[in-house]
């Protein structure tokens, strides 16, 4: 199972390109007709009411999947410590039903790998698919990979010019975020780069979620479709 999509969908920059002649109220359904998954980013910045998740689920086709970014209150403010209460509140807000995919936890670039802290955090997570995106070089460590493997949490393989790209498969699924190789959130991936990522995904040989986050100039949906074609996976969800 390989699902490929974009990180978010509310981008005015796409108005004259991918969303040309599409009213804003239909942006989500339009994108969901061309990819099989989308990463919800709004949950990172503030708690979303269950009604929002139900609305988004209703606007997407059967078989569609959302990944949900965990709140920055947990990752950036509390920095993975003493998070039982906000975690319970966040999990209680989710209302995607069968369209619920992985939860991604994006760490701040100043957060170093501390084995005890990470172990406690991973032990607190409920069952389900979780992925962790560290942005500090100290996470390039066997002890980190071992912790994720023990808890079946995927290390997020991130491609960006401003933080390390650490390639490791640590769970029964893989999670990739492509932020733009040369310019963060901007650069489009060329044919050679898409070929390389397609081969890496084949080599990992496991369920994989891929999100293009190079959104600022509108490359993300087109890159997502290009990678999907290379891997022979559907360009849209189906029952």
UniProtKB/TrEMBL annotation:
Gene3D superfamilies: Protein of unknown function UPF0759. SUPFAM superfamilies: TM1631-like. Coiled coil: none annotated. PANTHER family: DUF72 DOMAIN-CONTAINING PROTEIN, UNCHARACTERIZED PROTEIN YECE. This is DUF72 domain-containing protein.
